[in-house]
Amino acid sequence: MGEQKKIYLSPPHLSGQEAAYMEEAIRSNWIAPVGPDVDAFEEETKALVGVKGAVAVSSGTAAIHLALSLLNIKPNDTVFCSTLTFVASANPILYLGATPVFIDSEPETWNMSPLALRRALNEASLKGKLPKAVIVVHLFGQSAKMDEIRLICNYYDIPVIEDAAESMGSTYKGKASGTLGDFGIYSFNGNKIITTSGGGMLVSDDEKAIEKARFLATQAKEPAPYYQHKVAGYNYRMSNLLAAFGRAQLKVLHDRVQARRRIFDRYCQTLIDLPGLSFMPEMAKTKSNRWLTALTIKEKLAGLSSWQLLEILQQEGIEARLVWKPLHLQPLFNEMAYYPHDDEDQHVAAQLFQTGICLPSGSSLTTEQQDRVIAVIRSAFHHVNQKRYFILGKPGVYE
Ligand SMILES: *Cc1c(COP(=O)(O)O)cnc(C)c1O
C-alpha cells in the first residue's frame, strides 16, 4: 500500500473566488488595514447574520479584547467565562488585569451550565463582587442555553459576550449565533468554518459601541489634523487584502455548514453501533454548524479510551483532537475560582475532556477520506474487543 495523504482535522477550504477578490484589491492598491473590502466584508457579515454593527479585526482574540475594553473591564474586576473552551476565550481577561471565574458545562449542550452560573452569580452578589461580564462559548458550533443564561444575567444586569468563534453559521431559535448577546465575536482563523487565514469580527446591535471599538482598534486616534490620543488603543484592524479573501469565503458559509453537518451525520450513521460511543447532542430549536464532529467514548464499554483512539488515528496519518482541556484545570488558571454544574460535584467539562474526541470534520473532507477514518475507528474497536473476547472467553461480554 502506498503512502497515504494525511487527513487534517479542519483545514482551510477555498471557494475558488478568493484570488479574484484579492486581485481586485491589489489592482486598486488597497493594501492597508482599511479599504473598500474591509467595509464590504463588514456590511455583508451584518446582512448575513442580522446585526446592526460590525468591525473586522485581526483575530477573534482581538475581538474579545475589544468587547471587554468596551465594557470598561479594569484590574481587580472579575469576568465569568465558560471553562470548556480554547484559552483565547479567557486570555483577554488577563490582558486587562481582571480575574476570570470559570463556569462548568452542562450535559445537554456541553456549554455553560445555567445552574452553575446562577450559583456563581448568587455567591458573587452576596459578596458584593458581581462580574463585569459573562463570556459564553458555543463549543464546536453548538449553541449554549442562551435564554436561560440571558435571563440570569439580565436579573443581575451583567452584559453577555458570545464567543461565537466556532459557531458562525449556527442558529439558536432561528437567530444567528453571535447575535444573541450584547456582543458577539467571530474568528476567521485558518481552522474555522470560514477563514481569512487569520482574522476576526466583533458584532453588536449597539452601533455606538461598535464605533468606539473601531476607534480603539485603530490606535484610538482622535479626530484632529494631527496625531492626538487620549486613551491607549490597539492596532487590531483587519487588512483589506484579507477582508477581500473573507468576502469570497462568506459567500460559501451556508455550503460549508451543510457540508460539515453531512460529515457529522455520516460519522453518526456509520459508527453509532459501536459500544460506548455517544455523539455531541444538538439541542432542540438550535442548529449547529457542526464545526467539529465531537463524540465521547465510555472506556468500560468501548474497551479503549479517547486518548488511545487519538493515538491510533495519529499512527494512520489522521489528525484528531481531544476536546478542549477545561481552563480551570490549566496551570495558567489554577488560582482562579470555578463552579461545577451542580452541588453534587458533577464536573461535566472535566468528564468531557476525559472522554471526548474530535474527528476530521473539514468541509473539503472527501467521502473516501471519511471512509478511511471510519474504517480505522471500526478496526480499533474490533481489535480491542476481539482481544477481550479471547480473555473472557465469552463473546459479547464487555465487563
Ligand atoms: C479560535 C477560537 C478563538 C480565537 O480566535 P482567533 O481568531 O484564533 O484569535 C476564541 N475562542 C474560541 C472558542 C476559539 O475556538
Q: What is the percent of helical residues?
A: 25-40%
Regarding quaternary structure, how should these chains be classified?
single chain
pLDDT averaged over residues? 95
The kinds of small molecule bound in this structure are:
pyridoxal-5'-phosphate
Distance between the termini: 37 Å
Rounded radius of gyration (Å) = 22 Å
* Largest sheet, strands/sense/barrel: 8 strands, mixed
Please tally the β strands and state the result: 15
Structure description:
This protein is α/β, with parallel strands linked by helices and 399 residues long. The protein has two domains: 236 residues, Type I PLP-dependent aspartate aminotransferase-like (Major domain) (Aspartate Aminotransferase, domain 2, 3-Layer(aba) Sandwich), CATH 3.40.640.10; 139 residues, Aspartate Aminotransferase, domain 1. The chain contains 13 helices and 15 strands. It has an eight-stranded mixed sheet, sandwiched between helices. A four-stranded antiparallel sheet has the order 10-12-15-13. A hairpin with a 2-residue loop joins strand 6 and strand 7. The two termini are 37 Å apart. Bound molecules: pyridoxal-5'-phosphate (PLP). Pyridoxal-5'-phosphate binds next to helix 3.
